[in-house]
Automatic annotation (TrEMBL):
Zn(2+) binds at C285, C290, H292, C298. The keyword Zinc applies. GO terms for biological process: ribosomal small subunit biogenesis. This is Small ribosomal subunit biogenesis GTPase RsgA. One of several proteins that assist in the late maturation steps of the functional core of the 30S ribosomal subunit. Helps release RbfA from mature subunits. May play a role in the assembly of ribosomal proteins into the subunit. Circularly permuted GTPase that catalyzes slow GTP hydrolysis, GTPase activity is stimulated by the 30S ribosomal subunit. Binds 1 zinc ion per subunit. The gene is rsgA. Pfam families: RsgA_GTPase. Residues 113-260 form the EngC GTPase domain. Keywords: Cytoplasm, GTP-binding, Hydrolase, Metal-binding, Nucleotide-binding, Ribosome biogenesis, RNA-binding, rRNA-binding, Zinc.
Amino acid sequence: MSYDTNSPVKSLPQLGWSHFFQQQLDLYEWENTLPCRVAAVHGQHIDVFSNHGQHQLSLPGSWQQLDIIDRPTVGDWLLVEHDTLKPQRLLQRTSLFRRKAAGLEAKQQLIAANIDTLFIVTSCNQDFNPSRLERYLALAYDAEMQPIVVLTKTDLVNDVSPFITEARSLKHDLLVEAVNSLDHHSCEALLTWCGPGQTVALTGSSGVGKSTLINTLCGHSDQATAAIREDDAKGRHTTTARSLHFLPEGGILIDNPGMRELQLADCEDGIANLFEEIEQLARNCKFNDCSHQGEHGCAVSKAVESGSLEPRRLSSYLKLKAEQQRNSETIAERRSREKSFRKMCRTVTSDKRKRQEDH
C-alpha cells in the first residue's frame, strides 16, 4: 500500500464521481472499498486518486489476461480494498475514447474513459486538416462525448474566420472556439466545460499547442513545450503519456500524446452521426446496397453533381466507412476473407491460362 501525502486531497465529486457510479455499488462495496480515479497507467502499475489522496497500485497478474476493453485506462473508476488497496473491479464507464492500435492486427487502444468533453485541438496553419478533424469527431460521437474543436495559434494569422467557417462546416451543430493558447483571457471561453466535477480531454496532432493550452488553463507551467518546424509546421512530441490534471475551476483535464496515426474501428455510429447529411441522402438511393460512387439512381452522387454536397466530404465518408469496417473485423475473419480472395485470384489466373492454351 502506498500513499502520497503531498498530493492534493479531493472529494469524490471533485474527482468526477456522480450518481451514475454511485448506483453501481452495493452496500458491502460502499462500506469496504475505496473508489479511485485512474490518473496514469504504467503497465502493471497505475496511479490513482481517491478522497484520501494519491495512491500507487499494482494490478494483479490476472488483470493482464483480460481483454483490453476490461483493463483500466486513464479516467476510469476502480474499486479497491480499503486496507490493502488491492483492485477489486472496474466500474461501468459513461464514455470510452479509443482507436485502433497501430499495426496490422485488429486490436484496440484505450485512450481515456469517463470524459464529458473532448477538446480537439488544431492550429491555424498547415496542420489544419478537415479530414483529420473528421476522424477525431467520429470517435468522439461514437464515444458519446461532447466534441469542441479548439483552433490555436490565432495570433499567427491575420484572419481566423476561414478556419472557423471550415471547421463549423463539418457538422451543423459543431462547437468551435478560436484561442491564443498563450493568453489566459483568450482561453476563458473554454472554461465553460471545465467546472467542478467535469472531465475534459485534449487530443490533436503534435505541435498544435496542447501543452501550452494545458499550462494556461491550469495556471502553471508543468507541461513541457516545444516550437514547431518552420518549413512544414510539423510539431515535436512533448507529451509522451496520458496524464490527469486538476483545473483551478474545479474540473479535471486529461492530456493525450500527439497521435501520428488515428485509425477507426467499430465506429459506425460515430461516422453516421458526423455525416448525417449523407446518411439522409442515402435513404433516397434507388438501391439499398448503393456504394454512392456513381450508380444509377444514387441520391448521394446526384447531390455531388448538383453542388449541394462537397466531393471531399463524400470521399472522406466513404474512406472512413471502409476503414472502420476493415478494422472492425476479427483477425480470423480477416484471414478468412484474405484466404478466399487469394483463392479467387488463383482461380481467375488458372482460367485465364487455360483459355490462352485453348486458343
